[in-house]
Amino acid sequence: MIRVFVGFFTTKRIQEAVEKLQSQSERFIKGKWVEPQNFHMTFQFIGEVPQERLTDLLKNLQEIAQNAKAVRIKYRGLGVFPNLDRARVLWIGVSDGHRQLIDLAKSIVRANRQIGIREEGKPFHPHVTICRIKEFDKRALKDLLRQHENTFFGEDLVDKIALVKSSLTAVGPIYTVIEEFYFHG
């Protein structure tokens, strides 16, 4: 079995902004900050699949990429999942390109459903996780979110999707791109 997801890795453009954010908020957010090289957006978390299922997954992604068009996105704003009272994930959102990313995620989920892969059950919300929160000061976190609700963190050209292996280790996840597919639409 292999643990996988479909997504893309961000470019280095947002790393500097996140480093500033981290140093600004370390005193009131305790948690595991995502390593900059691991910044990514997940279109569909698939989980554990048998090795032989990868062929079908890769075929689906190749077909989707053939018809997909590159989209320029802007990273803007901060948010938390699931909510401010029980914040567990701090993320950077997407403004421009939001709708196109949702449509792309839907097409990935739809194609993978046809080969027996279930969807997660939560709607796709375009974001890049930057911290897995363990403890936080609610007032300070609320202020941080308000202060950065419209902050521009950078932009990317999303022109490919990847099937990524996710290996969980004691020091954090290790991501390995199995294969990536450039858009042709």
Task: Tell me about this structure.
With 185 residues, the chain is α+β, with helices and mostly antiparallel strands. It has one domain: Cyclic phosphodiesterase (Cyclic Phosphodiesterase, Chain: A, Alpha-Beta Complex), CATH 3.90.1140.10. It has helices at residues 15-25, 54-67, 98-113, 138-147, and strands spanning 2-9, 29-33, 40-49, 71-81, 89-94, 127-136, 152-158, 160-169, 172-182. The protein has a 5-stranded antiparallel β-sheet with strand order 2-6-5-4-7. The protein has a 4-stranded antiparallel β-sheet with strand order 3-1-8-9. The longest helix has 16 residues, at 98-113. The radius of gyration is 17 Å and the shape is globular. The relative contact order is 0.28.
SS elements, strand count:
9
Give the tally of structural domains.
Answer: 1
Q: Count up the helices.
A: 4
**Gross morphology:** globular
In the predicted model, the low-confidence regions spanning at least 5 consecutive residues are: none
**Helicity, as a percent range:** 25-40%
- CATH class equals Alpha Beta
User: Per CATH, what is the topology?
Assistant: Cyclic Phosphodiesterase, Chain: A
**Secondary structural class:** alpha+beta
Q: What portion of residues belong to β-strands?
A: 35-45%
What's the CATH H-level superfamily name? Cyclic phosphodiesterase
Largest sheet: 5 strands, antiparallel
> How are the strands of the biggest sheet laid out side by side?
2-6-5-4-7
State the end-to-end distance.
Answer: 33 Å
